[in-house]
Amino acid sequence: MSATDNTDSPITQSLLNLSKDDLEQYFVAAGGKSYRAKQVLEWIYQQRVDGIDEMSNLPSSMREHMEKEFHMNDLQHVETKGADDTTRKFLFRLNDGRYVETVFIPASKGLNGKQSSRKTICVSSQVGCAFGCKFCASGLAGFTRNLTAAEIVGQMLAVEKQTGESINNIVFMGMGEPLANIKNLIKALEIITSHWGLNIGARSVTVSTSGLAPQIKELAEFPVPIRLAISLHGATDDVRDLIMPVNKKWPIKELFDSLHQWRLHKKQKISLEYILIEGVNDDLNQAAILAKRAKGINAKVNLIPYNTVDGLDWKRPSSDVCYAFRDVIADAGINTTLRLEKGHDINAACGQLRLKKETAEGIIEAPAKARQ
Ligand code: SAH
Ligand code: SF4
Known about the structure:
Bound molecules: S-adenosyl-L-homocysteine, iron/sulfur cluster
Structural class: alpha/beta
Number of domains: 2
Distance between the termini: 36 Å
Strand content: 15-25%
Number of helices: 13
């Protein structure tokens, strides 16, 4: 196991890292019966117990033995921002003293005024991010480590516990680049979408990436119909190069080649995410090219006015500019959304709570101001 694969402590393995197959193998190797795996999974994902000692249909000697090898508390709740009924952001402490952020977005009224039943969680996949997009708080202090599958799955259990709500939609749009942690991501996706795990419909799970073309092709082979969102943020290489260093490695042509390949495996529409940043990527020419690119892969486009980040000088364009940009795309016949409401501020500035906490505790140095 590589140094970034796991936490420094505790030394035991997390039960939440294990699939049904993994657990069956464990019990059989230990001289037990494979049905124990099903019992353990029921305790974790249905009964939601906090510890192995509560798994009362396992013999006590078995529980004692398991307690020496496993733990199941990977996240400790530290702080909640935001009131009930609105978007709430949670800060969790990991077992090695690092912090991770998770956002809960409750059902909201749709355009037709009907209450949606969607309860979304925005999960993190890494502590920090190595990709250094110029506008993003998660990349500001660089990369610390990958989250384990248990720490990804644990965010969902911890938020359900904190809110008392049942989550039915998951987006990998928190801290980190999920496709740079693809091994743990795939394990977490298996646990999230399996009937023996969290049992969330794969169509309600969206992985967002800044465009790691080889890993997009790899994830396309994962045999469940999850959704893909691409953080595009620039319709041409020159604009994208300015704000997303990843584009130098996998320019738009290579990225879109990988999206064509994705579409051979998955039926759901790809989403192109596009943050509108004043004077950087909000030119209407970009809108026209974006529309053409979306049409080429039958994608939808989500426009997000930029949310300010402490230490960065970027701004969102005026509402008029946002609407004009949206209209160019909509007029080209592309399904597009533009979210101007305030509630999303807390969401999009993901990475800032953790940055403050780790800086205050001296775990990381205060990041350099803007890197524009
Ligand atoms: N690394 C992946 C997953 C994180 S998703 C990715 O980049 O897709 C986080 C999303 O929030 C990305 O679309 C990112 O571009 C966007 N984002 C980051 N900073 C933002 C900000 N200040 N305002 C609005 N959106 C932002
Ligand atoms: Fe990393 Fe995504 Fe932020 Fe870019 S936008 S720095 S890839 S988290």
